[in-house]
Amino acid sequence: MQTNMESEDTKKIQEMKTDLNLLLECLKYQMDNAFSQKEALVTIHSICQQNSNAGVYFREIGGLIFVKNLAKSSEHSMVKEAALYTLGAVAEQNVYCQQTLCTSELFEDLTWFLSDNDSNTNLKRMSVYVILVLVSNNRIGQTLVRETGCISVLSHLFRTVLSKYELNLSDKNVFQNYQLWSSVCSTLCVCVNNPQNDENQMLCCSLFPHANDWLINCMQPEIIRPICSFIGLTLANNTYIQKYFISVGGLDVLSQVLVQLESDSHETLSSAKLAVVVTKTVDACIADNPTFGAVLSKYHIVSKLLALLLHESLDSGEKFSIILTLGHCTEDCEENQYDLFKNNGLPLMIQALTESQNEELNKAATFVLHNCKKITEKLSLSLGEYSFDENEVEQLKDINMKEKNLEEYWKKAKEILHRIEQLERAGNEEKIQTEKYEDTFSSVNINIQNTFKHLHADSSGGGPKAEDKDKSPSRRLQSHKSHEAMSKACTNNDQMKTLLKSANPVNTCYRESGQNKTVCKTDSSSNQNVCEETTFEKKNFVSQSSDHVFKHPTPTAKNTKQQLPVTDPFTLCSDIINKEVINFLATDSCSKMLKYRCSGCIAVGKSLNSRNFSKLLHSCPYQCDHHKVIVEAEDRYKSELRKSLICNKKILLTPRRRQQLSNESTAPGGIIMEPFGKTVSIR
């Protein structure tokens, strides 16, 4: 089967070569028949389009050079057009053919076709097409188009092909001229960029005033799109050209066009899409010079961009362009920053940050939020610097309050990242620690078993002593865990700071707002330390559970999702950030949840002992996991102790006393009388 396929491919290649040889011979022997030559050229073009290797073979047999000479020497315009069309198609398909044709001689011939008054519009279009193919992704072609003067001829066509601002594309002649003008715009774009060419950018910037006139007088998509592409690529990454464009009023013109298109976008979808194109061009103007954003404040561009961002027809890529432009507008312009606050821009950025899964869009939104911090500090100090009316002052106060809540939002997000990093860095160490904890627990179980044995051997005073023995190793275990976790957190303190700074490529929004708060407080009371260390232990060693990432006594942390691989900090903490944003936008209801805390966790300041602490835990309906285990263990211990004492003492009692004992043992807290006058209290 494979042999048959290979033989078929070989047969097709051989047929292709035969066809190209015959067509080339036809071109050579039909010099007096222009129609036959045109048909042969069209067929060659078709073959080269279907097979990328056909162009290489056609070049090897000398067909490429022959067609180039034919385009120059033929007296028939349609033969010249067909020859140029074939050259462009072959060069577009194969880079080797592009390099073969990329000579100063061909550029001079193309320049002559463009400048000759006898050349019709279609011949000029084919010439521009060949220039476009030769220059695209080719620095040598960009150099030749400048040195041969071809770029000057293209600039002249850009100015003169369309003479009237009223563009009637239904007219055949106007439509042909528009097609030529559009091709010229595309060719100038590849002359200045892809790769970027500073010298060609300098030559093409002289066309900015003419482009501004067209934008002002003809706001049609057929004009705005090519001109915006030309402007954006001509001034991209070139601060000198950007300054020149702004000096000739280009940024003002773009702002006026954007305002008009945003106003029309409420009625037509095409206006919204076109406004995004203009937005990208505006962003290219101010990206390297944020101070130029002050020009946009005169036209309230920030408010227009925020309104455009709410358009439902825009996709994530278009929204990213708008948010990135907002970031450059607010980077170094306080007027634009205030405009963002005034028009409810902060909640929109937070919404984009929490809802979108687009990483680039999240970076842009974070960039805008970082810029907002700069003016917030100034506005919080003084409201009299700007002339606001009463409504604006109230809005500003509300914005400042939201910004304070946003600081808490950032702080909690960083705290979450800190915790996650600690859990991840534990790694193999956690396994070793788990084994140590299992050994400790096994020793506790051995102590408990020894206690029961002691009770069977010697019943006198066994209850209270056994309980003390059970409490003691548990406390030592908690203290051991707590101190290990505290030392680990202190060791990784500097690493956590580095993590917060590098969590997102737009790392300026992750500046540290303060030192990490101390988790455990030192107190002279040993009982208080036990509770605090238990809380610390929960926060740092809950990774042993596979169902919950963060277990905490508060109900707000019981439905936390399973831990995901670390990719992006906002993606990783999306659930928690969503909760924080909801709390930030809604009323503060966190205080209502405090009454559902475990009594054992919050009764640290009281004087506790083995008796009142047990009663406190039994009376609490909202026990945390830790204290619930303590209560259950204590109940099991008391039950076993009660059974053991009853079995050992029942045989020493008279029937009357045995009945009395049986009645008393059923009641909680009953008293068992021993035969030697001792009493055992069952709590």
From TrEMBL:
- Cite the SUPFAM superfamilies for this sequence: ARM repeat
Q: Which organism is it from?
A: Vicugna pacos
- Region named Disordered: 454-494
Lineage in the entry? Eukaryota, Metazoa, Chordata, Craniata, Vertebrata
Query: What is the name attached to this protein's record?
Result: Telomere repeats-binding bouquet formation protein 1 isoform X2
Q: Which domain of life is it from?
A: Eukaryota
InterPro entries per UniProt:
ARM-like (IPR011989), ARM-type_fold (IPR016024), TERB1 (IPR042359)
